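Q: Mind making up any chain with structure tokens?
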Amino acid sequence: MVIGNKSGYIFNGVNKNIIKRGQNENNSLSKINEVQNYKKELENIKIKRNISEALHMATYEEMKRDKNVFVLGEDVGLYGGSYNVTKNLAHLFGFARVLDTPICENAFMGLGIGSSINGLRPIIEGMNLSFLILAFNQISNNACMLRYMCDGQFNIPIVIRGPGGIGKQLGPEHSQRIESYIMSIPGIKIVACSTPFNARGLLKSAIRENNPVLFLEHVLLYNKEEEIPILPYTLPIDKAEVVKKGNDLTIL
């Protein structure tokens, strides 16, 4: 039992000690300052990662932060994904949250959409973006439209991500980019990462988004390295990154 009095002392009836009130306050302030200083030190610490590792960090952090986040796709579990983005996540979170699927893009896209209607936040990995053309009906008529058809009664918080573009030892059917097919569909946001820094921050924001997001990765950029903060961070997905300011007009 702790009893206070007007003299500014606290009498601890259990330990029979008399403690100056200000002493406790000073100790608390000292600990707060230590934590703040430690956080500032962490903010200055950076680690070198490539894009594949940065995407892995983002996925791990969001799965740890939110139990409703899970991953599904071909070889995402035991194998760890074609480019190691989901490596070891099944052992950390269980195979129920890192779900290996059959080779049937239309089916597991529907599974992801249905789970999102019921409150989960799936990250749907296409082993190759070209293969997701097989799930075009699910993406267009279900993922993008259901929220509007049901007058906003529920959201579709899914992230559709995976590799695309021309790469080493990839044939024509493994080298496509599908954003031009998707961009005309209302209700979906399209995000493309280009560096480890923006890959991690953009993917974390995409996972937290309440509407469908198509997250594009390029095969030839997975091994691109740079230093990124050790602490978690997010980047906005509703605006482009200004790499360099200038006086001329650039149209992309």
Notes: The mean pLDDT is 87. The CA atoms of residues 46 and 228 lie 5 Å apart. The first helix runs from residue 21 to 43.
